[in-house]
Amino acid sequence: MDNLTHTLTGVMLSRAGLERFTPRATWILLLAVNAPDMDIVSALGGSLNYLHYHRNVTHSLILLPVLPLVCVLLVRFVFRQPLHWAGAYFVGFIGVISHLVLDLTNIYGVRLFAPFSGRWIHWDITSVIDFWIWGVLLIALLAPLLARLVNAEIGARAPAHGGASRGFAIAALGLVALYDGGRAVMHSRALSTLDSRIYGGSAPSRVAAFPEAASIFRWRGLAETPEAVSILTIDVREPFDPSAGPVYYKPEPSPALEVARTTPVFQEFLRFSQYPFWQLMPAGHIENATRVEALDLRFGDPQTPSFVATAIVNAQLQVVRAWFQFGRAAPR
To answer: What are 169-193's pLDDT values in tens digits?
Structure first.
């Protein structure tokens, strides 16, 4: 998830009761819920470097015991105030766990077992940025302030300190959990519907459903057969037509494609991509050269590509250049 979601979750966890475990609990949580994203510094090495390191070891179980301790020590050093060490570590641990769980829910996923395994785990039930979750958490953040203003205006007795904040925080966390649970149920229904149809005369070899931000009922479906990939919109409340979406045919086997596949750029991309789609086209600026592209269908399609590895392969089957972009772009 995005860092606003993680930060708001940290505030809600603190207000819901974790603030009572140690002084400066909120600061520990704010660091802990964002700590795994320290891998953002890898972007300084370029897009391919970021693709390699993002949601790698910092999002794995091996660093799970370490990151909370780092956050606790940093808060202790900055504020120079005694902490309840066991409580502080527990608070930090919950913060890091919340980050990993939220990241598991979206289509990007995490590598929980890095560096021992590069396997990506992703539940595909929420978008990386989910505005419904933003709304719930922001309302819970601001509602206690609004309640205090209203009480002051009408002269009503204010509730016990922290009571309103705690109630709104617990409700918000519960609603987010319920929302994700509802999305998981709808995701399962979407997958079952996709898998039960025939596409161009063939049963699908695999299917996927990716969330649409506006509704838990609508999903962006993917059905792959040996010859092609169909991209479809599926609404679990309505009849589903497996022929309604665009069909993208896979290219024929090509020496240029196999050469591109062996490059470090494509090797790194293929370790990341869960649904790669290949395209071949003339390179244009080099005679008889082939432009080889592989894009990740979780984030786009051939009409609106995103997360794209590209190679220019000449007539002698030599790679002139290979690069990775988060969107299709000409090499510089």
So the answer is: 999 999 999 999 999 999 999 999 9
Backbone angles phi, psi at 60, to 5 degrees: -105, 165
Least confident segment among 91-95, 252-256, 324-328: 324-328
Decide: 222 and 187 in contact? Cβ < 8 Å: no
Convert the pLDDT of each residue in 120-157 to its tens digit. 999 999 999 999 999 999 999 999 888 777 666 676 55
Q: Are 83 and 72 in contact (CB under 8 A)?
A: yes
The single-letter code of the amino acid at 71 is C
Tally: H helices and E strands in the chain: 9, 8
DSSP state, 190?
Answer: H
Strands (E), 136-180: none
Give the whole-angstrom CA distance, residue 82 versus residue 92.
Answer: 16
Alpha-carbon span 107 to 119, nearest angstrom: 14
Classify residue 131 as exposed, middle or buried by CB count within 10 Å of its CB (0-12, 13-18, 19+). exposed
